[in-house]
Each structure stands twice: as structure tokens, then as C-alpha cells.
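cron nightly-structures :: item 1 of 1
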Amino acid sequence: MAIERAFFYHRAIVRWAAIVSALWVAGCGWQLQGQSALPASIESIQVRSMTDQRLLGYEIVRQLKATQVTVVDSTADADVVLEILQDRWEQELVSVGLNGKAQEYGVLMRAAFRVSRHGETVLPAQNLVLRRVYIVDPQNELSNEWRVLELVDTLRVDMARTVIRRLRALEQADADFAR
């Protein structure tokens, strides 16, 4: 009898904990990360990369296609032109151990872009910097190199999301400016 009662109380506590956790997560505004739509004024976009590195541009195009926006090659067909002015990554030493060897490195991704609509600049040049720090494994240099490449890919995806969030904010900025 005591075991059944303890089991019942345990299940009740677990249920209440699950309910409270679900309410807390819902109340703080957390939601699954997904593709969000661009403003209705942007039906087509041209993405131009002014750098030798075109990987950020490719990632932005990939994410834009997931939002059902038409990506065009011609400026005349585009509602908005996104120009990527800078796209590069670099590695920096963050900390050194007592033995004088590197313990942590940081990977920085720098990007700059501007947005124009029918030849007029809508969003002047924006500079973005994202950074991730990783711990060096002195026993496995090859894994460190792979980790850097993995971080660069992750930063590129995050940078593309950041640029698209800025594009989404254009409609709000246009509405505020019209008032």
C-alpha cells in the first residue's frame, strides 16, 4: 500500500513538473526555430556578392528559397537587391595555458551588406560580426581543423539568418518612416 501511494505521488509530481515546464517555456516566448516570411513588399530579391567568397550569398539564397521568396538574377526583376560587401572569417588566439601552448581559439565571421530598392538605398551598409570560441585538443590536431571548419559553417548559417532577420525588419522600418 505504501509503495502504491509513493508511486502515485511520484507520478503526480512528474506530471506537475511537466505542466509547469511547458507553461514556463510557452510564457517566455520560446518557439521552434523555423523559416519566417519576409515582408509582403519583397516578392523577389537579387543577391549580389561583391567578394571572392560567395558562400554566404549561397547560404542566404538557400534560406530565402525556403521562405518562398523568388530569387532572381536581374536587377530589373527584383523588388530588392541585397549586396554582400564583405564575407570573411578569421581565427584568433583567445587563451594560452601554463605550458605556453594555445588552449582556446576564437573563430570570427565578418560580413557587411546593404539593401537597395529600385536603385535607392533602403538599408545602408551594415557590419555584422559573429564569434565562437572553442577549446583546443592538443592530442588531436586534425579534429581541431575539422572543428574550425564546422564552426565556420555554423557561423555562416547564423549570419545568413541574421541578414534575413534584418530584411524582415525593413517593412517595420518602412511603416515607421511613413508615419
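cron nightly-structures :: done
DSSP finds three helices and five strands in the chain.
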